[in-house]
Write a structure and sequence with these properties.
Blueprint: E1 3-4, E2 7-15, E3 19-26, E4 32-39, H1 40-43, H2 48-59, E5 70-76, E6 81-87, E7 91-93, H3 94-99, H4 108-127, E8 130-131, E9 140-143, E10 148-150, E11 157-158, H5 177-180, H6 187-204, H7 214-223, H8 234-243, H9 254-259, H10 261-264
Antiparallel strand pairs: 1-2, 2-3, 3-4, 4-6, 5-6, 7-9, 8-11, 9-10
Helix pairs in contact: 4-6, 6-8
Length: 285
């Protein structure tokens, strides 16, 4: 059996341009992990190398129940590669969860359980001076016991409350109006906008501007023009509206979102059971 560090290397479960993800098992504890091997010799020649190193630096210091843990970084200089030992998540992403919903979206009861966990993770990030900058359904895994875990810190950046950023990043459907307009922006304020889009999608089953081309979507988003959820409670409507304020200074902070009555409410007496399908493709890009 091939090994790296304290881990036995198992089957391949994912592959990218510069990386390959394999199942790993700790030789002493038997703990399953995901081993992501990055060909750093090849990657060093690309503009993404510094971003990759920044991702490692940020992700390695995060410890939160709702964030996928980067356990260890192993430098394999002889083979010109870096191995990221990542928490293995048995489950699937939130987009798959919604796609399998027969109602086209989740009930407010179900959505609040997931959303409150995501907000707790983002509050932890912001409290530690980190903006995620790519919050979306696909970057939230749900374990088979219903625990949400944020993944993919490729666009994350250390920041302060009022730090101004210039580099546009994130997924087109989720980015804030200020990023669309190519203005300078605060990463934490943009994260809150993305949370608003995610929350709308959780309940409705689609993004606020579904079915529109990128130009029309941008025009609507820049005006804060979206169709309100007809069957949503007033509290949920208020929360979404607070996240999707066009002007960043009028937008809720992550503390506002976390303390909002809708986020705080507890509809279910028992935890939501998560999906029982294995996750592999979303561990880390």
């Amino acid at each position: 059996m091939r090994c790296i560090g304290d881990y036995e290397i198992g089957e391949t479960i994912g592959e990218g341009a510069f990386s390959k993800v394999k199942v790993g098992v700790h030789r002493v504890t038997g703990r399953r992990v995901a081993l992501k091997f990055i060909n750093t010799n090849m990657m060093e020649q690309t503009v993404g190398y510094l971003q990759f190193r920044r991702e490692i630096e940020i992700h390695s210091r995060l410890r939160h129940r709702n964030i996928a843990q980067l356990i260890q970084v192993i430098e394999d200089e002889d083979r010109g590669r870096t191995c990221l030992v990542v928490e293995f998540i048995q489950g699937r992403d939130l987009l798959d969860v919604i796609s399998d919903s027969q109602k086209g979206g989740l009930s407010e009861s179900e959505a609040s359980v997931y959303f409150s966990q995501i907000v707790a993770a983002v509050q932890y990030l912001h409290g530690n001076g980190i903006a995620h900058r790519d919050i979306k359904l696909e970057n939230v895994m749900v374990t088979d016991t219903g625990v949400c875990k944020i993944i993919d810190f490729g666009f994350s950046r250390g920041t302060k409350d009022n730090d101004i950023m210039k580099t546009p990043c994130g997924s087109p459907v989720y980015v804030s109006p200020e990023i669309m307009k190519k203005k300078t922006y605060c990463g934490m304020q943009s994260d809150v906008w993305s949370l608003g889009v995610l929350l709308y999608s959780l309940v409705s089953g689609c993004v606020p501007w579904a079915g529109l081309d990128i130009i029309r979507k941008r025009e609507r988003a820049e005006r804060g023009d979206y169709i309100p959820l007809q069957d949503a409670s007033p509290s949920l409507q208020n929360l979404i509206m607070g996240c999707l304020c066009v002007e960043p200074e009028d937008r809720m902070t992550i503390m506002d979102v976390q303390s909002h009555e809708w986020t705080m409410r507890r509809h279910l007496k028992r935890r939501v059971s998560g999906p029982f399908r294995s996750m592999v493709r979303k561990i880390m890009r």
